[in-house]
Amino acid sequence: MGIRFLKFIIIILLQLFFSSFLYGTDIITSSQNLSDGRTLVSSDGSFELGFFSPGNSGKSRYLGIWYKNIPVQNVVWVANRCNPINDSSGVLMINNTGNLVLLNQSGSVIWASNSKKEAQNPEVQLLDSGNLVLQDRIDGNPATPLWQSFDYPTDSWLPGMKFGWDLSTGLNRRLSAWNSPDDPCPGDLTYGIELYNLPDLVMRKGSRKYFRTGNWKGGVANQFFTPNSIANEQEIYLIYHTKSKSVITRLVLNQTTGGARRIIWNEEARTWTVYSQFPSDDCDNYGTCGAYGNCVNTEIPPCQCLKGFKQKSQELNSVDWSQGCVRNNPLDCQKGDGFKKFGGLKLPDAEHSWVNESMDLDDCRDKCLENCSCTAYTILDIKEDRGCVIWFADLIDLKLFPPAAQDLYIRMSVADSDHEETKSNNKLKAALIIAAAILVVVSVVVITYYIRRSNRSIEEREIDRSNARQNEDLELPFFEFVFKNEVALIAKLQHRNLVKLLGCCIQGEEKMLIYEYMPNKSLDYFIFDDTRRNLLDWSRRFHIICGIARGLLYLHQDSRLRIIHRDIKASNVLLDNEMNPKISDFGLARTFGEQSDGKTNRVVGTYGYMAPEYAINGQFSIKSDVFSFGILLLEIISGKRNRGFYHLSDNINLIGHAWRLWKEGHPLELIDSFGKESCTLSEVLRCIHIGLLCVQQHSKDRPSMSSVVVMLSSETELVQPKEPSFLSNEKFPEINPLFTKPESSSTNEHSFSVLEPR
Ligand SMILES: *[C@@H]1O[C@H](CO)[C@@H](O)[C@H](O)[C@H]1NC(C)=O
Ligand SMILES: *[C@@H]1O[C@H](CO)[C@@H](O)[C@H](O)[C@H]1NC(C)=O
Fold first, then answer.
1. What CATH class does 518-742 carry?
2. Which residue has the higher pLDDT, 758 or 586?
3. pLDDT score, position 676
4. Which terminal residue of the chain, N or C, has fewer Cβ atoms less than 10 Å from its own Cβ?
């Protein structure tokens, strides 16, 4: 028994010895202190507290906390931010009132924790979260913190740290940037939750509002961390926790870049990668488009008036949007106004708002109508479908913001408002429907009668028209059959992301289409070339991806003709002088009208981009274009051709490789050498995710281009992709009977050559 006990004691002592040998200690008691040169290390070795001199600040010494296990010093908290010690005489200790104090050589207090409560047995401990806590140890156990560094954040928001308000004490935990990399004293950039009736997450430069998040509760779980929001009588705050201990991440505010970044430590590359940043585009700048102006990032110019509004500035095409927009038809509160529903908007500045947590949407509407200065209303809690928010001022800082699942009801004149379904007018509506039905029946009878009577004359007119059409055709005598499809189609298409056809000519055997000049050739010229690929950084690539998606969406859905392209690939995406993508080559395109799929015996397209159902059964649909788009997306990210990609270890193509990395949990290895530093991690991850959704085996699983466009521009959570097709090159043998026996009759060399990647 005695020996066992001794062994036990020895083991404990050894452990203590080694842990202090490895990490030092994580606690200072009232009888100890920490002088410059010594450090406190959290028990698992994640964080270290000590004295440091940032950047080129010379001899200035600050007390701070940094990551212990990251090579470059990254300070996440500073005590004496504006009050450095000019030599290495600084000492941290607990004074006789139980407060944590930082003293200089002459013993004067440089910084103190200013806890109000008295402590009997105070100690200070650096926790594994990076939180420095001053606590009273009662009966051997630490009691609730008397003070903690997490309550006084500097420029960094760490996992587990509350970001927001303790309402009972008035404590506001918000971030303030360092003045410069050499000076931890606060600059003028701050970021925090502002307590209006509807709380708002606001970044300010000095006193000026600079950026709003729009929905303070926002943020969805991702593979790195889970965010959460808490709002009750005592507290309003945001918090997040990492999904595993190995994830090192923080949100950091930066005066130099003028914004905030969420960064994640990449252990492999031993660098920080940017996961997201904001403001991220011009539309994020507070109030860019003025009152009732809607900022649409993808439009040029980005400012648009909401429907029912016009630009206030009288000058035509004025670029001055500070005055915003005014109503086409003025309100008339006395006679009565209505509302128009707007979806997909970032909620406007909530400074002048009113909130009720129990009202339903109908009550909310009535409440707004009652008060002539009410401009808009919406539901408070969309998850619970309850509560009411009302705005009392001009609506500012609107942005097209697809993740916003919330509708905003804006007060409008009766002429501009929606016809609403409220309880009171349901009866009226029923009566109207009956009346309308009767009207329709009567009109059908009358019209049928007249059509019968005038049938003969219509036939005559029809003949006239077809004659006219033939004459029109004769005005284009140089169209040979092989070119006609493309010319006829493309001439009718107009979109920023489609190439413009200027004309065509035929001389002898030579047949030629004349497109607008694209000085930068095509996408494959860049992404697959070892040197030129460096010209396309991530933001350009993302811009190109979004452009192609919009071009395809236009073809599938918005154009007058509704078109399946059937040959989407890198060489068919041309780039103008500003690197805007333009889809070209409509030689294989088919219009589909209402019927959105078809079948062909002649499979044409490009090997490596073809959807399985098309390659094997000749079935094409808008979803086979989506498949090709998915391949293209993965190619843009990886810089590798789907076909011709061979992973060293086994025989899989690019999709197979992407899928495996995804399954194994390191999708970012797919990124091309164009620079992981330059990219926004969250965007790349999203694109890989979307790419995999597009190449799923079954066409019904693949998203439509309209969902792709929304997914690209939003932060909503995406469904997990199912296994894609063609995991192995072997599954798709090169000698495919469908390719060796193409229908030869009307072979268009232009389209068939594409069986080989160009
Ligand atoms: C702020 O941004 C500048 C410039 O990109 C960078 O040098 C500096 O390290 C950043 N500071 C922090 C605290 O991230
Ligand atoms: C309308 O609401 C504003 C803001 O809450 C308030 O100041 C004003 O008194 C209200 N007007 C009426 C008529 O209720």
1. mainly alpha
2. 586
3. 64
4. N
Closest residue by Cα to atom 11, ligand 2, is 371
pLDDT reported for residue 276: 85
The whole-angstrom distance between residue 203's C-alpha and the CA centroid of its chain comes to 18
Residues 6+ apart with CB under 8 A from 317: none
- Say how many Å lie between the CA of residue 331 and the centre of ligand 1: 49
pLDDT (tens digit per residue) in 439-492: 776 676 666 656 555 554 444 444 344 433 333 333 232 334 447 666 666 666
User: Can you give the pLDDT at residue 131?
Assistant: 97
| Residue whose structure tokens are 């094409």 | 620
Q: Is 517 exposed, middle or buried (0-12, 13-18, 19+ CB in 10 A)?
A: exposed
Rounded-to-integer distance, Cα 544 and Cα 539, Å: 9
Query: Among the atoms of ligand 2, which is closest to the Cα of residue 373?
Result: 1
Answer yes or no: are the C-beta atoms of 487 and 479 closer than 8 Å. yes
pLDDT of residue 540 exceeding 70: yes
The confidence score (pLDDT) of residue 747 equals 30
Question: Which amino acid type is present at position 386?
Answer: R
Q: Of all protein residues, whose CA lies closest to atom 5 belonging to ligand 1? A: 257
617 Cβ closer than 6 Å to some ligand 1 atom: no
Assess whether the C-beta atom of 256 lies below 6 angstroms from ligand 1.
yes
| Dihedral Cα 314, 320, 322, 327, nearest 10 deg | 30
Between CA 114 and CA 94 the distance in angstroms is: 11
Q: Closest Cα to residue 642, out of 580, 704, 571, 713? A: 571
- The DSSP-derived string for 80-99 is STT--BSSTT-EEEE-TTS-
Query: Count of CB atoms within 10 A of residue 15's CB?
Result: 10
The lowest-confidence range among 105-109, 215-219, 306-310, 418-422 is 418-422
Measure CA of the first residue to CA of the last residue in the chain; give whole Å: 82
Which architecture, in CATH terms, is 284-424?
A: 3-Layer(bba) Sandwich (3.50)
Alpha-carbon span 668 to 516, nearest angstrom: 37
Q: Point out the residues that are catalytic.
A: 567
> Side chain identity at 352, as an amino acid letter?
H
User: What are the C-alpha distances in Å from 566 to residues 47, 444, 604, 754?
Assistant: 55, 42, 8, 11
- Cβ atoms of 491 and 503 within 8 Å: the answer is no
CATH architecture, range 25-147:
Orthogonal Prism (2.90)
**According to the model, what pLDDT value does residue 640 have?**
86
pTM recorded for the entire structure: 0.64
User: How far apart, in whole angstroms, are the C-alpha atoms of residue 731 and residue 754?
Assistant: 21
Q: In the prediction, which pLDDT does 18 show?
A: 46
Which has the higher per-residue pLDDT, 730 or 623? 623
Tell which residue, 560, 545, 556, has the closest CA to residue 589: 556
More confident residue, 459 or 379: 379
Q: Are strands 171-173 and 325-327 parallel, antiparallel or unpaired?
A: unpaired
Protein residues whose CB sits closer than 6 Å to any atom of ligand 2: 354, 371, 373, 392
Name beta bridge partners: 67: 47
Q: What one-character-per-residue DSSP string does 143-185 give?
A: EEEEEEGGGS--SEE-TT--EEEETTTTEEE-EEEEEETTEEE
SS3 696: strand
Q: Which among 243, 207, 249 is positioned nearest to 226, based on CA atoms?
A: 243
